[in-house]
Amino acid sequence: MTRHDGAPPDMTGAHQPEDATVVYLPATRTDNPTTASPDTSAPSAPDAGTEVELAPAREAFNTRRLVPEQTRERMAHGAVVVAHRAGPVVGNAARGAGGVVRDVARGVGVVWARYRDNHSAARYERMMQAAEVEGDHERLLEWEARAVAEKQRRHARAMEWLASPLKLVGALAVGIASIVALLLALGIILAIGDGDIGQVVAPIAGVLEAIRWAWWFATAYGIFVVLGATTLGLVYLYRQGHQPQATTDATWAGPGRRAEDRVRESEPVTPSKVVDALKHLGNARLRKAIEAMADGGAGMLSPIVLAGTGVEVDVELPRGTNTEEVKAKRRQLAENLDRHEHEVFIDTSSAARTVRLWIADAGALDEPIDASPLVVDGEAHASVHSGRAPWGRNLRNDPVELFLWQMHLLITGKSNMGKTAALRALVLWAAFDPTTRFRIADLKGLGDWHMFKNIADVLIEGPTDAHVIAATEMLEDAVEEMDRRLQGFDKAKYPNGVPAGLPGYEPLFVIVDEAQVAFMCPALDEHKRPYGGQKTTSRYFAAARKIHNQGRAVNVVLWQGTQDPTDQNLPKMVREGAHIRASLHVGTESQARMGLGENAVNEGAAPHELKQEHKGTLVVTGPGVTCPPGKTSEIVRTHYIGGSEATALAERAEQRRAERPATEPDEQRDLLADVHTVLGSDDHIRTTDVVSRLRKHAAHYPPYQRLNGTTLAEQLDEHGVSVTRRDGIPTVYTERVRAALAHREHTTD
Ligand SMILES: Nc1ncnc2c1ncn2[C@@H]1O[C@H](COP(=O)(O)OP(=O)(O)OP(=O)(O)O)[C@@H](O)[C@H]1O
């Protein structure tokens, strides 16, 4: 427990004579007692303050000497309150009158500001500004919608007012006519009853008399009524201006402060502050239990320790309260600690009935983190089998590295939160391992993955159905490769499974960014099977499932990045198939559950509580992730590797891969002859089917393993075989291959 330096010994209460009843209080009034610094509350010299009795505060002091900070803050508060109350007693009359006038004037300001607030869009503007500053876009949109609705309501009311004078005159005329008729009817009844015709107008005369009297009263005594009403009004204004909120509430007094003008104060997190924040969580049982503690709650806390860009403290909750109650009040707790909600994390500690609070330094999470070691280290090496990919830093600022060997991966998040960058950072690292192979489909196609053009065996870039079809075929080819590996595996020789570095079993990463595009693709193949969708007939879905089920053991893994997960664009079976699951900011808790799984969210993972402005910050869970003790997920602020840095890294990775000792056979195969062989008795076959037959035909010939439909078409073209579309699908015709072979034979003879 730390103490504020420089606190005079008598302020702790320990050295004060027990009969002392006087302390010195600062003369300066502090408007915000909770933020009064210890120095202002701690009197240093008698002449600096006003002498007043403070027995109750002193008593409180003695009972809380174990928490000096807390006590001193309370003293500060007490001092302010007492000094404030003592003001009128010690002040002179002139100062008192001046104060009253000031308070009345301030009251006018308060009432006017309140009126304006209630009758203009000012409140909405203010809330929108606050939401914007906090980056809370959902709240911003909500207030925007409310502002529009309010403007419409006002407009409708103004239009009603325009039509109202006519209506008012009409209503008045009808009202007067009805009253006159009523009075006449009454007069007639009286006249009949009394047998006196003069009574007919008597009720009307009575009413006129009453009006005359009221006029006389108003002219004779109206001045008193006016004086009385004015006095009441002034008293009301004085009370409004006199309330402390009049000076502290920026919205209703003085010129309005814009939310962004407010400087955020990163006050140190002291034990007293934490206890006070817990006490004011709005949980009566917790408050009462803290108040009943002899040490004022200090015993609940572990020492507050520095933890990365914030501090960490364990709180052992009193009996009768539970950790869930505190976790549910995260926003309140954060605000009590002068932090944003996203700057406070509450975990259940391994100790019973104990929560672990991590409280960021105010604004610290908005700062970018350092560059990736991959960028900084010019000599970067990687081994997916034994190494870990540097990804970012956790909230405690410790490096986070992922173990990726034989791991399927899924990254989800709202658009533009950094999903591609986070996924690409891992792929870039893996590319530094020369044994790795990549097949990449970027279903956005804006060049985010273009730097892999010389590294990946397959690179598909684009968002159309044709690109989805190519991506699906890429997955299906990977399934074939997986099957080949499974069937060709020598179980007798390798009883412990595929060893690292086994030729033909190189780590193959099948990567699909923007995978939601594939699931949502409506295209059908010639057999009316859909490429997209979530049914077992869906080709993309089926291939993804197969890789998830069996790929890991033979080093074929699927890494997918997908936007805004839903059951439609990310079917349950596919998301559950990933070993490592990461989520950047998503809109709702149910999306967080889709991204990370039920368990992780049940145990506290909350990517939906990340903020929109925290790009690149994600929650990750899975076996390849090192999590804090007792936790199943970790919050990571990922290193950002931008496009040009990624390009430079990819070039370096290319060089490293080129330095790899040649393991490829010197064998040179005859493409034209091989294509002719695999075409067999077919007249024509789709280009991608030719590729897959070639891969099978010469399974250990790397150039065929790297082929795709486009590169095959290019190479066949060099041999004089043109690939043309049949029903929109690139197709190889046997006749053309045969003709090219004949032509070659003829020309070489
Ligand atoms: N780790 C990071 N730190 C800081 N900023 C980042 C980080 N990652 C991404 N960004 C910012 O977010 C922007 C979007 O990144 P990225 O393209 O990776 O997002 P995305 O989620 O893949 O978007 P979309 O789904 O719309 O394609 C980047 O241009 C960059 O400005």
From TrEMBL:
GO molecular function: ATP binding; DNA binding
Chain residues that bind ATP: G413, K414, S415, N416, M417, G418, K419, T420
InterPro entries named among the record's database cross-references: FtsK_dom, P-loop_NTPase
Pfam families in alphabetical order: FtsK_SpoIIIE
Polar residues bias locations: 29-43
Domain of life the protein comes from: Bacteria
UniProt region (Disordered), positions on chain: 1-50, 247-266
Domain FtsK residue range list: 397-593
Bias (Basic and acidic residues): 257-266
Residue ranges crossing the lipid bilayer per the database entry: 168-193, 213-238
Keywords linked to the UniProt accession: ATP-binding, Membrane, Nucleotide-binding, Transmembrane, Transmembrane helix
Protein name as it appears in the record: S-DNA-T family DNA segregation ATPase FtsK/SpoIIIE
Species per Swiss-Prot/TrEMBL record: Tamaricihabitans halophyticus
